[in-house]
Amino acid sequence: MKPLRKMPPRARRASVPLPDSVVVALPADCTLGNIGALRDLLCEVKAGVPNITLDLRRLERFDTATLQLLAAFTRDHAARGANLLTCGNRPAWDEAAALLGLTATLEGRV
Predict the structure, then answer these.
(1) Domain containing 68 — which CATH number?
(2) In a domain, 51, yes or no
(3) 20 to 30 Å CA-CA from 12: which of 29, 58, 71, 81?
(4) Per DSSP, what are the bridge partners of residue 61?
(5) Winning range, highest mean pLDDT, from 10-14, 23-27, 46-50
(6) Can you say whether the dihedral through the CA atoms of 42, 44, 50, 56 is positive or negative?
(7) Does the CA dihedral 58-50-108-37 come out positive or negative?
(8) Ramachandran quadrant class, 90 (left: phi over 0; alpha: psi -120 to 50; beta: rest)
(9) Alpha-carbon distance 97 to 104, whole Å?
């Protein structure tokens, strides 16, 4: 009987735990001209984060494209079970979301 050949040890993957919550601070200017930077910011949020807060306190300008992008973001993360919150009261934000029929989506109620 042949002796067992020793195999080199496998490299273990270090699993980085997901944070319990993530705050996405929207920049002051969230218009179509800056939509790429906002998309990149949203893409940094890992799938599986249980709590996501959209911080609207610095937000000064936004447009329909911003609301649509954020609606898709919140819809996708809410479908994965994330709790979505909004920080910073913006009456114009609420009004625009209502006009576009995105209020429930932006609040994470899919």
Answers:
(1) 3.30.750.24
(2) yes
(3) 81
(4) 29
(5) 23-27
(6) negative
(7) positive
(8) beta
(9) 9
